[in-house]
Amino acid sequence: MNKRKEEREGENEPVNIFFGAVHTYAEDESMKYVILDVGEGSWFTACQILGRRLGFPGTGSASDIGEIVGNMSFEQIRKGLERTMGDTTNIEATLREYSQKQTRTITK
Asked: How far apart are CA 4 and CA 106, in angstroms?
């Protein structure tokens, strides 16, 4: 099967996203991201996983998701952000709020 046909078959595929979901990046499957906020529409907030650290949060879109490959706990996320940003006391309430949001389905 050629790459274009494979790409078209992946379009319009539903995927469940949730706080802590780890996904590969569609354009480079060696890169992984963790979802912090399920957002709305086709958008969500995620951080790149950089070993034991997490990159700064940014906006992701449904088309960025390669596949869901695992999940991270609240504590793993908090520690990963702490290794990057230092004290996370100021954002813990927001992270807890995000962690309570329901899983939702988006279309890639």
From this structure: 22
Residue with tokens 């099967």: 1
- Please give the DSSP secondary-structure letter assigned to residue 108: -
Q: Are the CB atoms for 77 and 34 separated by under 8 Å?
A: yes
List pLDDT tens digits, range 75-89: 999 999 999 999 999
* Domain total in the chain: 1
* Domain limits for position 15: 3-107
Residue-wise pLDDT tens digits, 25-80: 999 999 999 999 999 999 999 999 999 999 999 999 999 999 999 999 999 999 99
- Residue 80 has which token pair? 């990963």
Query: What is the rounded CA–CA span in Å between residue 23 and residue 85?
Result: 22
DSSP 3-state of 18: coil
Q: Count the neighbouring beta carbons within 10 Å of the beta carbon of residue 60.
A: 23
